[in-house]
Design brief:
mainly alpha; 5 helices
Length: 76
């Protein structure tokens, strides 16, 4: 059951990252470059197939001008 829950959490996280990036009109390629990751690696994060490291999560939240908590849990 926890793997199913983790999958939903990963997909929700990915959806919020993509939503926020688009709200800021930030191209995926530009964000990947700012984060110092390859485009394929960033695509995996945004599709929910690869979770970001703790450090990368912090960098993503900074670049997207939002909180880590919102990226992970949603809400507000």
């Amino acid at each position: 059951m926890s793997s199913i829950k983790s999958n939903f959490i990963a997909k929700d996280f990915a959806r919020r990252v993509k939503q926020r990036r688009k709200t800021l009109m930030l191209p995926m390629t530009q964000l990947a470059k700012k984060l110092g990751v390859s485009e394929p690696e960033y695509t995996q994060i945004e599709s929910g197939t690869r979770p970001p490291s703790r450090k990368l999560l912090t960098q993503i939240s900074i670049e997207l001008r939002t909180s880590e908590k919102w990226l992970i849990e949603g809400g507000y």
